[in-house]
Known about the structure:
- The structure holds 2 protein chains of 2 kinds.
- Chain A is mostly helical.
- Chain A has helices at residues 3-7, 9-30, 35-69, 72-105, 109-127, 134-137, 142-147, 156-181, 188-212, 214-218, 220-226, 228-256.
- Chain A is built from 12 helices and no strands.
- By secondary structure, chain B is mainly alpha-helical.
- Chain B has one domain (5-101, 112-239).
- Chain B has helices at 5-29, 34-51, 54-60, 64-84, 88-104, 106-115, 118-132, 135-143, 147-167, 178-201, 211-245, 248-256.
- Chain B starts with a helix and ends in a 9-residue tail after the last helix.
Amino acid sequence: MPGGLVARPRAFAVIVAAFAAAITGAVGLAAPAWTPVAAGGALLAAGFAVMAPCELQMATVLATVVGRSAAGVGGVRATALRFTVGYLAYYVPVAIVIGALAHLAGNAARALAAAGGGLMLTLGLATLGAGGPAWLKRCRGPLYLLRSGRASFRKPLRAGVAFGQYCSTCCGPYAFALAVFAGAGRHAWLGAAIVGAYALLMALPFLVPALVVPARSSALSEHLATVRPTLDHSAGLSLVAIGALVIPISLISGMAGKW
Amino acid sequence: MVIDPTTLVPVAVYGCVYTLLVLQRKRSRGRVDWARVGVYVFGLAVIVVALDSPLDKLADHGSMAAHMVQHELLGNIAPVLLLLGLDAGLARPVTRPVFGPAVRSSRGRRLLKAANSPVLAVGLYIGVMWLWYVPSVYRTVSASSVLHPLGHTLFVLTGLLFWFHVLRPLPALVTLTPRQKLLYLLVGTIGGAMVAAVLIGAPQALYGASLQNQRLAGAVMMAVEMPLALGFGLWVFLRAAPRERLSPSSQSTEREHPARPEFAR
């Protein structure tokens, strides 16, 4: 974890935003029709950075749920499947809402995407303890939902739903920006399909190992617990970066009128 | 289904060599990891499916999305499966006589080290992908009966080279640390994301297929590469975590403060 960036997340956000604005702005001025390529390239390239910490957090939660509720290889598989079903069950309506929102917002969708970027940035700063309203600081990941009793480690389906709630708050704005970039303004189903695919892509990397090598999955929870603070910092930093990226590219692409 | 000899011959050769290695292992050790064998065979089957199935016909008839599925199978899925099907002991009868003499000489060692460079691997992986998707190159290569199979071979080779550094099934002269592996995966993913962005966001059709089909191809690319990179990123991270925990300093700390998930208390 790059300690300097965690210590100065605001400066990091400014650098990322300036870089994204320079690239998108240059393309927007030189070849406005190609602005979506610059914007999409930045968003897709950032996908790994925004998804990886969440993926690891999801693995942490799943490993703990598996450790608490599953017995035997079959139990691990069933628990992982139930957790995934819960996660996707929450994300499907979210995908439909996001798709419809991108469609209904029309030209305002880019401004909404930029506002989503602002939300991500604020969440990221709050996670790193560098600002944001006090109530956001309590929403540090799926722990909040689990500790507050809204979900239980012993109920995989509900734990999956809880993780979906957490994930959609952070990654939802990113998924919305992706949907707008891919042309969700023209077809509502396209936006829903993109966000749904995003959720499925998030679920696959932790579900497949649990199905293929269940014995190892069940032994992970202790190992993962030791790296949780690193994961929280990584998630906060990636939220700051993506938020800072989404704001200028949404606004500049919007001004270029081609996104 | 009749398999094209240009696909069948190399696949059969690799299959035969692998079978000999497995038999040798069984003779010397008395046991074989059949799951690993199955993964390797599946990898060879993926190559056959990519090149000699209705998918190939669809791609030849101008479907860029089908072409992209083909490329993902050849450049990512098959290499990953083939590498997962190998291990150092199994491959030793081939690697020892082939690389042994080179490792023992300083010049050979330097050459092997250069060839084993992760920078070269990721550079070739991204470079071949970018070159292929230059519109004029794509159209020329796709129309050529010589260049097209060569391009597919290049995809498999660069895929093997790229994923070797992540999976590292055999001993290597250059080894990446877990953090370097994550960075390496990130660079590879960004390389693919750039191509996907062009395919999805370009204002017009660039490759002879319809704009819709071109966009679908970009989505297919991300749908395969993103979970692969995320999955293996997770794997790299999880493999590194226990090692960190088992270091002497962390062991003493753990005795004083037994590791328990904070949220499990």
